Amino acid sequence: MVRAPCCEKTGLKRGPWAQEEDDLLIDYINKNGHGSWRSLPKLAGLLRCGKSCRLRWTNYLRPDIKRGPFSDEEEKLVIQLHAILGNRWAAIAAQLPGRTDNEIKNLWNTHLKKRLVSMGIDPQTHEPSFSDGPLKRPPTLPSTRHMAQWESARMEAEARLSMESSASVSVLLPSPKKRTTTTTTDYFLRIWHSEVGESFQKLNKGKIGCFSPASQPSVSGTTIETEPKPDYEPEPEPRLGGVTFYPGFTHVSSPSEMEDSSDTALQLFFDIPGLNDMSFLEAHFN
DNA sequence: AACGGGGCCAACCGCACGGGT
DNA sequence: TACCCGTGCGGTTGGCCCCGT
Q: Which of A62, A125, A210, A266 has the most neighbouring CB atoms within 10 Å?
């Protein structure tokens, strides 16, 4: 079966938008909201396809769009997020307020990818490129894998909640057909944003943290692997938000710095008795 | 001054998915 | 359950602009 075109092409304008068209679109959406994109062009008096209108609005005309060049911090964040999420531009964009997926995609393809290549880093894997030599790629450290998985879960939950809060029905987590119930990542996200999480972030000097319950939990949905509790018994930091912090746990500050963890280790251990118990989480954070 | 090549980015295309019927 | 429609998403394209020759 051949899919019908999104709109009747004949007689519709294509290519760059004129100022008058922008004005018509902005004026209509400000007054009526976009409603059905398909019917919008006719109602707004535009000779455009609905899809074209949607793209123009979401990528350019939306009032919350941040124009101008990306800051160093934004570029760094895009690289870090790409290392975690891959080419999921919408999920990455959800972490950069005012930036669109299209903009980030363009930034990546025109600047960041080349920069990584010039630094000898594979832009797809974010690992040192070994393609031109006999060197073999080193195995990923378990702690690194753990870190990436946890961070991935957090980022995805952040992105999803961000989308939900802006009344979007899109779900960013991969694969599952439908998500109607609260997921494990939500709990971890709540922890992250709770007093406990904030204390943890503070102790991490604002960097992304490694979060490790004392035991397990391997939870369904998104797997969160955890490090074993250190076999020594360190002096705990003062209890923060009912949770005890232990020094002495190897920490990597961000995915891009995993290769250099020795420099950035922050030595924290996050001990939450019973964190593997979902009812505990529900009771504590709902 | 003219021309060509490359960079950049807005816009388009086609696929996938979810919701409605 | 199957089909259709609307929308979102990622990949690709086209055209403008800048810079070097």
A: A210
pLDDT digits (tens, 9 = 90+) for A124-155: 777 776 544 333 344 333 333 334 444 444 55
* Nearest residue for C8, CA–C1': A170
Of A54-58, A66-70, A198-202, A203-207, give the lowest mean pLDDT range: A203-207
Is the CB of residue A255 less than 8 Å from the CB of residue A126? Answer: yes
Q: Which nucleotides of strand C are protein-proximal, with an atom < 7 A from a CB?
A: 4-12, 15
With CA atoms as reference, report the closest residue to A208 among A278, A258, A140.
A258
Tell me the CA–C1' distance in angstroms for A12 and C9: 24
**Phi and psi of A268, rounded to 5°?**
-130, 145
> In Å, what is the separation between the CA of A184 and the C1' of B15?
30
Burial of A49 by CB count in 10 Å (0-12 exposed, 13-18 middle, 19+ buried)? buried
Show Cβ contacts of residue A273 under 8 Å, excluding neighbours closer than 6 positions: A214
Burial class of residue A11, CB neighbours in 10 A (0-12, 13-18, 19+): exposed
Contacts 24+ apart (CB under 8 A), A98-103: A98/A64, A98/A65, A98/A66, A99/A65, A99/A66, A99/A70, A99/A74, A100/A58, A100/A59, A100/A65, A102/A59, A103/A59
**pLDDT value for A35:** 80
pLDDT above 50: residue A26: yes
The separation, in Å, between residue A9 CA and nucleotide C4 C1' comes to 20
CA distance A48 to A35: 16
pLDDT value, residue A10:
56
C1’ C21 / CA A248, Å: 61
* Alpha-carbon A122 to chain mean position: 20
Kind and range of the H or E element at A57?
A: none
What pTM, to 2 d.p., does this model score? 0.56
